[in-house]
Amino acid sequence: MEKTDSQDRICGAVLASALGDAFGAPYEGGKVERLLWLVLGRRRGRRCWTDDTQMSVDVMESLLACKRIDQKDLAHRFAHSYRWTRGYGPGAGKLLKRIRRGEPWQIANRAVYPNGSFGNGGAMRAAPIGLFYGAGRERRLVRAVREATVVTHAHPAGQDGAVIIALTTALACLDYSVQEIFKRLRLHIQTVDVQNRLTVAERLLHADHPVLPKQVASELGNGIRAKDSCVTAFSVGLALREAPFSHLLTYIRKVGGDTDTIGAMAGAIWGAACGYRQLPEEFLQQLEQRQYLEELAHRFADAIVQGHL
Ligand code: R7I
Ligand code: MG
Ligand code: MG
Predict the structure, then answer these.
(1) Distance CA 285, CA 15 (A)
(2) Which of 117, 152, 225, 228 to probe ligand 1 with, by most ligand atoms within 8 A of CB?
């Protein structure tokens, strides 16, 4: 079946994000995490994806079932999908187990960190929300992202990171310019740390020379906190959206740090700009549960495109 441009971009964002996660995962963290992933990271010869893709799947399944952000449904899905073998953040694991035991998410989301988590776990699953609401419903999109994020990440920085990834993914689907994307993001970002990162990213994206991965890591960060990885992924995804997907993966490996999550978030932006058809078959063939993810991406894209008509 011939796919429309927007369906191709939505499927591209979903699959490129999963690939960024699965291909970034072997390089995430320190020696211990990498050794563990050598054992856990392959299934039937395929590259496994991590919590980033699992939670994005949960978000898509929830949006398909509820047609909007339903926080209770999301909390239930996140908690019941939780498996430590997917490499969840330490706080996130504890929180999800509390929800699974019956604690309301409104209590669990401040039980581990009193101000709520500022990790990047809300942002790594935010791209589908941007795809679902689309750039034409920007205020609704931002509200939905904050509602979906607060279930596990009550801290405003965790939410700002999610807004950056979701809104940029939506804007990339429509080929907005870098300048316009910065303008739109600045209307919604609430924390000073994330605003400051955007100012640095703007300088790097307008530099008249190629910016090396090491410079991106030192100026924008490559860590697990939302403020240290969301603007990084945003910047890399936008800067390389005209380069082949393999360049994006290589670049992210060199940025280092939280490579699976930077890969998942930058992958979503790259995929929204370039579409599914630009993804190399040799990478897709290596992806765990490729068939399920593609079928889900098509269902999700069909629902969005039909809903917008
Ligand atoms: O944000 P989260 O779901 O983690 C996502 C990351 C991604 O890299 C995934 O690939 C996976 O590897 O984990 O999980 P959280 O545990 O909520 O937050 C991540 C980390 O951020 C925590 O383990 C803490 O190190 C740090 N952190 C905090 N530290 C102190 N005080 C987050 N919030 C706080 C805080 O309030
Ligand atoms: Mg992960
Ligand atoms: Mg990660």
Answers:
(1) 12
(2) 117
Sorting pLDDT into bands at 50, 70 and 90, what band is 3? low
The Cβ of residue 296 has, within 10 Å, a number of other Cβ atoms equal to 21
For residue 39, give Cα distances in angstroms to 20, 28, 188, 261, 268.
19, 14, 41, 19, 27
The number of the ligand nearest the C-alpha atom of 88 reads 1
In this structure, are residues 26 and 34 in contact, taking their beta carbons and an 8 Å threshold? yes
| Sign, CA torsion 188/192/197/203 | positive
Q: What is the pLDDT of residues 234-276, one digit of tens each?
A: 999 999 999 999 999 999 999 999 999 999 999 999 999 999 9
C-alpha gyration radius of the chain: 17
174 Cβ below 6 A of ligand 1:
no
Residue 247 Cα to ligand 1 middle (Å)? 28
pTM higher than 0.85: yes
Whole-angstrom distance, CA of residue 257 vs CA of residue 41:
17
pLDDT digits (tens, 9 = 90+) for 163-181: 999 999 999 999 999 999 9
Q: Where are the domains of the chain?
A: 5-307
Give me the CATH topology for the region 5-307. ADP-ribosylglycohydrolase fold (1.10.4080)
Which residue intervals of the chain are DSSP H helices? 5-24, 31-40, 51-66, 71-81, 90-100, 105-108, 127-133, 138-149, 156-173, 178-186, 192-205, 213-220, 230-239, 245-255, 259-274, 281-284, 290-308
Q: What is the pLDDT of residues 182-200, one digit of tens each?
A: 999 999 999 999 999 999 9
